[in-house]
Amino acid sequence: ALGATSSCHVLARGVAARPSHPPSAAGDGLLVWLEQYLWRLRAGVFRFEQAPPHFDMDARIVSLFPRPPTDSPVPAEAAVYLDGQVTSRVTRGVRVDCSALMVPEQLAGGETLYAYSIRFEMLADHPSRPARLAQAQLATRHWRIKTTDPRTGRQNVESVDGDGVVGLYPIVSTAADAEPITYQSCSTASDDANTAMGGFFVFVEGTRDAQTGPAFDVAVEPFLLKAPAFLY
Fold first, then answer.
1. pLDDT in tens, 181-202
2. What tens digit of pLDDT does each residue of 11-21 get?
3. What's the domain range around 97?
4. 2, part of any domain
5. CA atoms of 204 and 202, how far apart (whole Å)
6. Distance separating alpha carbons of residues 133 and 122, to the nearest angstrom
7. Would you say residue 126 lies in a domain?
8. CA distance 161 to 155
9. Which domain of life is it from (predicted)?
10. In 3D, which of 46, 73, 18, 74 has the Cα closest to residue 226?
């Protein structure tokens, strides 16, 4: 993974108590919590991944950044808990998976810190990929962060643009040995507003130093920065 944000979360101080969801499950809250965790493991929402370099260990850990479920169809009682916090979209064969993870230790001044994980992969067999496009490199990022006041409905959109991601310029390709590229970063969100992150990345065909075709936009399906129904 690129970047330094950990994908393994441990709540070190206290417990963030929240009302049971749904309220009818109040008497079985712990059981529902465990069932949801097991479903996420089985469905591939939580996956085993190699520990990041800053963990200083050679081990595989359970990543708590949710991924699109491998189960199809997804059980309705499970899907509702992931609504909007896990998104995926393919543009010209380049798939972008996004997910957010609340960091409850960082609660201050009416804002919460969220870590987010972005995963890039070029799909060789996707119909949107032009036949000539076998490799592409990320050039720039363009975030559009939309905040909606739930009381008034007023919206504000903040633009964040820059070169690369966490100082790097990932390359995706259709090569048999190509691996998906993941990077992680973070952002804050107001506790009393609805916040969604979307936008697009600009890729160039080939590489930045040896372009084989024009640049193109790869869309990001907006994902939400919100407190989850379950905290692990």
1. 999 999 999 887 889 999 999 9
2. 444 444 455 45
3. 23-225
4. no
5. 7
6. 9
7. yes
8. 20
9. Eukaryota
10. 18
Judge whether 18 lies within some domain: no
Residue 101 in any domain: the answer is yes
Half-sphere exposure in the Cβ direction for 2 (13 Å, CA): 17
Calculate mean pLDDT across residues 206-227.
Answer: 94
Q: Any idea which residue has 């609504």 for tokens?
A: 83
Write the DSSP assignment of 57-119 as a string of letters: S--EEEE-S----SSSSPPHHHHHHHTTTEEEEEETTEEEEEEEEEEEEEEETTEEEEEEEEE
- Give the global pTM: 0.81
Look at 39 and 170; give whichever has higher pLDDT: 170
Mean residue pLDDT of the chain comes to 83
Q: Residue for token digits 């465990």?
A: 34
d(CA 143, CA 222): 10
> Residue 49 corresponds to which amino acid?
E
Alpha-carbon distance values, 144 to 84, 122, 125, 186, 191 (Å): 16, 23, 30, 14, 19
CATH number at 63 reads 2.60.40.1470
